[in-house]
């Protein structure tokens, strides 16, 4: 059961605190600069990425889908009843992750290369070989932002031609969600916010504890960071520390920003909901979090620990339902009105029915891990096989309607 006792460890007000009494304020915004936190409409164009915390380009073009790392494509659709395989692509098992997806291209990270494949055929369009990508690239406005060791670079999404590169003193995390004109990367214990146009450093801030990929969430130039020593920070638009909390835990998962709280899971399996005004732990749940990201929607926070997917109330932490996926897994994904999760198979669940309705269970010949991404009605699923690994594109079957309503 979740604990409702607020932590006595309050956020410490440090130099540069914004004094704004909302999550947007904690992230360094105030007045007219405050971004929107209301749920966007599923009709019409998506909100502008630099003005809305739940904004994206409508595809899985970054680690956690949107600026808040919610893993929630609220207006999207994906297979619900009769899935079929569009294509399978063999990849190296080391570092296997779900790809990022943007503008009809799928970005697959191999051990020693970044492969860019056509979303329809699965055929290679171009690749960046001879380098070791450190996680998923981010894609925005026709530019791919990727990291290999200590080099951050921007590539043309259509051709792979390098637009710029910048070297740092140590290994980098992959860039956080691209927001407007900024990228956010971690280098050991330092956070850098750099220009997306040319890679020049806007500001840097050293923290206590290693910033581990992909433990970054960002809105505009204001990151929300969880470090390897249990530090949770919100940084202002100039790098000032607004609030800070030491939870005496180790974080290696990305923080997720909800409408009312920020959520983060530590390596011992505890899931925290942090109140943005004071930084207190509003609620926590033991044996609830895994070593990958969580998913957030209007009503639920979804997290996997061991072989169990759990759905918690976003405000109270009450556990609504749980589901056994049959084997250890990673991050769930919410698309439209369906929650997708891996394990001994690919599962699609109806969250409105207590997690009890399995819309489909699809055997892909191996273990589905560690996460799932989506784009244009298709799921992209990493599968570990007995001898090797694949990324599998799963689309709706011929008779299935892809229309869906927003996730509950």
Indicate the overall shape.
Answer: globular
For the biggest sheet, the summary is: 5 strands, mixed
Average predicted local confidence, pLDDT? 79
CATH topology of the domain at 23-79 and 123-335: Methylamine Dehydrogenase, Chain H
Given as residue ranges, the uncertain stretches (5+ residues, pLDDT < 50) are 4-38, 401-408
CATH C-level class of the domain at 23-79 and 123-335 is: Mainly Beta
Integer-rounded radius of gyration: 20 Å
* Total of DSSP H or I helical runs spanning 4+ residues: 1
Structure summary, number of beta strands: 33
What is the topology, as strand order, of the major beta sheet? 1-26-27-28-29
What is the H level of CATH, i.e. the homologous superfamily of the domain at 23-79 and 123-335?
Answer: YVTN repeat-like/Quinoprotein amine dehydrogenase
Helix vs. strand class: mainly beta
Strand content: 35-45%
**Helix fraction bin:** under 10%
Kindly report how far apart the N and C termini lie.
22 Å
> Based on the structure given, which CATH architecture of the domain at 23-79 and 123-335 is correct?
7 Propeller
Q: What features would you describe in this structure?
A:
This is PQQ-binding-like beta-propeller repeat protein. It holds the Pfam family PQQ_2. The protein has 408 residues and is mostly beta strands. 1% of the residues lie in helices and 40% in strands. The strands form eight sheets. The chain has a five-stranded mixed sheet, with no helix packed on it. Strands 2, 30, 31, 32 and 33 form a five-stranded antiparallel sheet that branches. Strands 3-4-5-6 form a four-stranded antiparallel sheet, with no helix packed on it. A hairpin with a 2-residue loop joins strand 26 and strand 27. The longest helix has 4 residues. The chain is globular, with a radius of gyration of 20 Å.
């Amino acid at each position: 059961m979740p604990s409702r006792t607020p932590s006595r460890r309050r956020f410490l007000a440090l130099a540069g605190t914004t004094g704004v009494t909302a999550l947007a304020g904690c992230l360094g915004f105030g007045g007219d600069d405050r971004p929107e936190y209301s749920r966007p409409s599923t009709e019409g164009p998506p909100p502008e990425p630099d003005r809305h915390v739940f904004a994206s380009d409508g595809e899985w073009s970054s680690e956690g889908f949107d600026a808040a790392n919610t893993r929630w494509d609220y207006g999207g659709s994906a297979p619900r009843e009769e899935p079929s395989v569009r294509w399978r692509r063999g990849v190296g098992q080391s570092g296997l992750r779900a790809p990022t997806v943007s503008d009809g291209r799928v970005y697959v990270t191999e051990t020693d290369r970044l492969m860019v494949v056509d979303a329809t055929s699965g055929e290679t369009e171009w690749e960046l070989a001879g380098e070791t990508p450190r996680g998923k690239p981010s894609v925005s406005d026709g530019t791919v932002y990727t990291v290999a060791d200590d080099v951050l670079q921007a590539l043309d999404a259509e051709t792979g031609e390098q637009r710029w590169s910048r070297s740092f003193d140590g290994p980098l995390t992959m860039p956080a969600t691209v927001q407007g004109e900024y990228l956010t990367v971690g280098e050991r214990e330092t956070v850098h916010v750099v220009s997306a146009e040319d890679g020049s450093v806007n500001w840097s801030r050293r923290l206590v504890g290693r910033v581990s990929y992909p433990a970054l969430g960002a809105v505009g130039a204001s990151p929300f960071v969880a470090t390897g020593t249990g530090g949770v920070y919100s940084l202002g638009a100039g790098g000032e520390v607004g609030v800070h909390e030491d939870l005496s835990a180790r974080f290696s998962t990305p923080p997720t920003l909800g409408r009312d709280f920020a959520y983060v899971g530590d390596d011992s399996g505890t899931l925290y909901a942090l109140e943005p005004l004071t930084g207190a732990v509003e609620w926590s749940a033991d044996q609830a979090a895994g070593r990958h990201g969580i998913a957030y929607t209007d009503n639920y926070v979804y997290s996997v620990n061991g072989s169990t997917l759990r759905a918690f109330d976003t405000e109270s932490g009450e556990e609504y339902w749980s589901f056994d996926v049959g084997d250890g897994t990673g991050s769930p994904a919410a698309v439209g009105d369906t929650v997708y999760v891996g394990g001994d198979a690919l599962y699609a669940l109806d969250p409105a029915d207590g997690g009890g309705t399995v819309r489909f269970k699809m055997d892909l010949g191996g273990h589905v891990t560690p996460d799932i991404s989506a784009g244009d009605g298709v799921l992209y699923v990493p599968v570990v096989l007995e001898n090797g690994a694949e990324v599998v594109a799963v689309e709706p079957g011929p008779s299935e309607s892809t229309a869906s309503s927003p996730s509950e």
